[in-house]
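Help needed: design a sequence for this.
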């Protein structure tokens, strides 16, 4: 009985700790959208004061793979930058598209992708927004009272967040490689069609000249 009670108590503590660790984790919101030329696409999300806004974004198709990102608070801008994701190093592109901002004003914040500088080319952007709340259930339950297993649970939660971020970037890489392969296949197909048309045209011209040459020779012999 004592062993069973001890096991139940440990399971209860683990459930509480898991809830605490989950409360600390980031909330994810991942999207992919197309920003038309001379246009701007905005998203809005409410943040509390003292929260952190973490974001990963990358242009996966269109022009020079450039986009302008503008993040604004209720009354002041927080971030405004034009980024080019056309580097050969994937790690450099990933680092360029990773930003972390401190929310200084509570309220609704806007996240805008601006493609006004492009005249003809639309941009496909993939991004993930993660936000953390400054209010934690840790204030109600002290971690040191729950035992050292809390550190392991929180570490696992952080590792899960890191895995989600890696999966997001892997999906972007997969989309980029797929677009490149489809574009290459399309070019090869049109090149083959062009070669076939040129060969048929040259063969037709050769037949025409040969027939006209024999026709001229026959007329000369008759004369």
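Sure. Designed sequence:
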């Amino acid at each position: 009985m004592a062993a069973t009670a001890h096991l139940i108590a440990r399971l209860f503590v683990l459930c509480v700790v898991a809830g605490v660790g989950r409360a600390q984790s980031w909330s994810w919101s991942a999207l992919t959208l197309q920003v038309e030329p001379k246009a701007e696409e905005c998203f809005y999300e409410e943040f509390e004061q003292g929260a952190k806004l973490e974001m990963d974004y990358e242009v996966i198709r269109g022009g020079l793979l450039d986009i302008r990102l503008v993040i604004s608070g209720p009354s002041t801008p927080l971030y405004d930058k034009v980024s080019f994701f056309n580097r050969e190093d994937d790690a450099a592109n990933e680092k360029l598209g990773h930003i972390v901002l401190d929310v200084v004003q509570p309220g609704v914040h806007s996240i805008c992708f601006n493609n006004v500088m492009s005249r003809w080319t639309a941009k496909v952007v993939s991004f993930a927004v993660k936000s953390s709340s400054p209010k934690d259930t840790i204030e109600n339950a002290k971690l040191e009272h729950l035992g050292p297993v809390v550190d392991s649970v929180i570490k696992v939660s952080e590792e899960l967040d890191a895995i989600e971020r890696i999966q997001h970037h892997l999906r972007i890489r997969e989309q980029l490689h797929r677009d490149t392969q489809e574009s290459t296949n399309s070019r090869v197909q049109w090149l083959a069609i062009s070669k076939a048309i040129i060969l048929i045209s040259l063969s037709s011209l050769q037949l025409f000249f040969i027939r006209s040459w024999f026709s001229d020779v026959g007329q000369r012999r008759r004369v």
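The longest helix spans residues 149-222.
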